[in-house]
Structures are given as C-alpha cells and as structure tokens.
Specification:
Blueprint (H helix, E strand, L loop, with lengths): L27 H10 L1 H9 L1 H32 L7 H4 L6 H33 L5 H35 L4 H31 L11 H33 L1
Helix pairs in contact: 1-2, 1-3, 2-6, 3-5, 3-6, 3-7, 5-6, 5-8, 6-7, 7-8
Length: 250
C-alpha cells in the first residue's frame, strides 16, 4: 500500500476591508455593528458614491432612535425625582406634564441633528479648502456617521447611568447629589459626543489620500486643523441649539 501525503499550500485571503459590503452590513443593525467593531469598513462604504444616499438615512435612523431612548429615560427619571433635584437649567419649565417631557425629547432628538445641519456648510467649505476630493453628499454621510457613533456610545453609557441614578433615588441620596447626577445626565450626549467627533475625525483623515500630490505634510496638517476647527464649532453650537429648542417648546 502506498502512503500518500497531501501537500497543503497557503492561500492568501483578501484583507477584511476588501470584502464587498453585504446587504446585511448596509442595514441599520449592520451599520450599527460596523460602527462598534469596524469603523474603517463604514468609512469605506461611504467612499462609494452609489451607496451614500442609502447610508445617510440609515445613520440618521440610528441617531434618532438612540436619542429618543435617551431622552425618555431622562424624562422618566426626572418625573420621579424630587423637585429640588431637577437641574437648574430645567427647573423653571419642568412640571409633571406632557409638554415639558415632549419638549425635552424634541430638544435632544432634533437639536443634535439640527446642529449638524447648521455646521454642514462650514464643514464642506473646510474640506474644499483643505483640498480633499469629496462631494457635499459625502460630507453629509461622514457627519451622519459621526452622529450615529455618538448615539451608539450614548446607548452604551445610558444603562450604567440609569442604574446609578435609580440607586440614588431609591436609597434617598441627598438632594444636591441627586441634582448633580441629573445635571450629569443632561450632559451625557456631549460626553458621548467625544467618541462621535473622534470617529468623524478618523473618517475624514482617511480621505487624505485624495489630496493633490498625495499626503504631504503641510496639506495633511492643514486638513487635520480644519477638521478640529469644525469639531470645535459643532461642540459650541450643539448645546445652544438644544437649550434654545427646550426654552421655546417648554
């Protein structure tokens, strides 16, 4: 009997980012998973101009759903909190009624999106000024991806925050401490927003390979500064937009 030996030769598989995007990855849940596990693949999807118009509303759905869950979690906590624990910024207009609750929900759900829309033209201008090759739709896509990243991070922080806030309410923590924890709760979207800004910064800097003449030092540094300038502008506009909506609606 002859002994046969099988020779196995290594086969080079394509890199993970070179796999074509499946329909599952382009779904709302698939995009949420990509933002958690592989943001580079999400950035690669946004490079395809044929997919940008499909991806933008899905990123928007992720953001709106997450901000809605966050807003109503805060509303329920504030409704069971003693009046003295209501944050100062809400104390004048907050009552156990439907209108202030709806005002807080709309202020966060719409305010974060509206602030993005206000800052979009400047972001597009900064991109053109830096010299990258991107359309206005592409700018919208990257910005919505950053907003969706913020929303997903917010969903990760929210259960921990709710557990701490409920514990303070149940065990009767001092009212000033309860007020401090609820004030922190109102700032959670901005804390999570740091992750979204970082995600946006990464995605935008990956477009540096479209700069004229390649990624030379001066242009790359200028692009980085323009992206940071837009992030600072968005960070300043967002709380003003949310507070203005709350004041007007409540």
């Amino acid at each position: 009997m002859n002994n046969t030996v099988l020779l196995l030769e290594p086969v080079d598989l394509p890199a993970a980012e070179s796999w074509p995007a499946t329909a599952c990855q382009r779904s709302v849940l698939g995009l949420a998973e990509l933002l958690l596990k592989d943001r580079r693949s999400a950035d690669e999807l946004l490079r395809d101009e044929n997919q940008q118009l499909d991806l933008i509303p899905r990123f928007l759905m992720i953001a709106l759903a997450s901000f809605t869950v966050y807003a109503w979690a805060m509303i329920l906590l504030l409704d069971v909190a003693p009046h003295g624990a209501i944050p100062t910024v809400l104390a004048d207009g907050w009552k156990l009624a439907l209108r202030p609750a709806l005002a807080l929900w709309l202020a966060y759900a719409l305010g974060l999106i509206a602030a993005t829309g206000i800052c979009l033209p400047s972001f597009y201008f900064y991109g053109l000024l830096a010299g990258i090759k991107i359309s206005f739709v592409g700018i919208v896509g990257h910005t919505m991806k950053g907003t969706a990243s913020t929303a997903i991070m917010l969903m990760g922080i929210l259960p921990i925050y709710v557990a701490v806030a409920l514990g303070m309410l149940i065990f009767g923590a001092p009212v000033p401490e309860q007020q401090a924890i609820f004030t922190l709760g109102l700032a959670l979207p901005f804390i999570a927003g740091l992750w979204g800004v970082y995600s946006l910064f990464q995605g935008f800097m990956r477009l540096a390979d479209t700069l004229p003449g390649g990624c030379d030092g001066k242009r790359y540094c200028f692009l980085r500064r323009m992206t940071l300038a837009w992030s600072a502008c968005y960070t300043a506009v967002t709380p003003l937009m949310i507070y203005s909506l709350w004041s007007h609606l409540a």
